[in-house]
Design brief:
alpha/beta; Diaminopimelate Epimerase, Chain A, domain 1; transmembrane; Rv1476-like; transmembrane helix; DUF6676 family protein; membrane
């Protein structure tokens, strides 16, 4: 039985002083839960614009930084279980996200520009949304396929050149194949 206990999933660790029920209630009206009314209004405008652009976003702002940045992702995941779309939880320097429609890779790509904004959640949310609205970057599957095809073509071309050179050398008369300097 101890083996099962060892591999049991850990309970979500939420940021300190976070009441899940009050955050859910705060998100209900405008998809924003922030500590001040000023933040609420500014962030609600950004979130409404993102939603109009097709990103079903909900934003939570946690004052300060929790002990571990993973607790922001835990909170986003807990909220995402009962909220459709994407949940982004911002602290002063970190961000945690959950989405039922955007891939983890794309979320983390957008997180990178939204981190370390200090006590400016509107800048962080704007940077996050701007990155999500950008078209997908390079398709590494396509790049890999093209490189493999070019490598195969280069190998086939070298094989062709080498086999042609070998057949020309074997077909040439012995006097031409011999030492050109000995004929002088």
């Amino acid at each position: 039985m101890t083996v099962l206990h060892t591999f049991a999933p850990m309970a979500a660790e939420l940021p300190p002083n976070t009441e899940l029920s009050s955050v859910r209630a705060d998100l209900a009206d405008n998809h924003v839960a922030a500590p001040t009314d000023k933040d609420q209004q500014e962030l609600a405008t950004i979130v409404a614009q993102a939603r109009a652009e097709g990103i079903p976003l909900s934003v939570v702002v946690v004052p300060g930084n929790p002990g571990h940045d993973s607790s922001l992702r835990d909170l986003a995941t807990e909220l995402g279980q009962s909220t459709e779309g994407t949940v982004a939880v911002f602290s002063d320097d970190w961000i945690g996200t959950y989405s039922d429609s955007i891939s983890r890779v794309r979320l983390e790509w957008a997180e990178d520009v939204a981190k370390y904004r200090g006590n400016h959640p509107e800048e962080a949310v704007t940077a996050f949304v701007d990155r999500l609205e950008q078209p997908e970057g390079t398709s590494w599957g396509v790049v890999t396929g093209v490189l493999l095809a070019l490598t195969a073509l280069a190998v086939a071309g070298l094989y062709f050149v080498k086999s042609r050179r070998d057949s020309e050398e074997s077909a040439a008369p012995a006097s031409v194949r011999g030492d050109a300097g000995s004929a002088q």
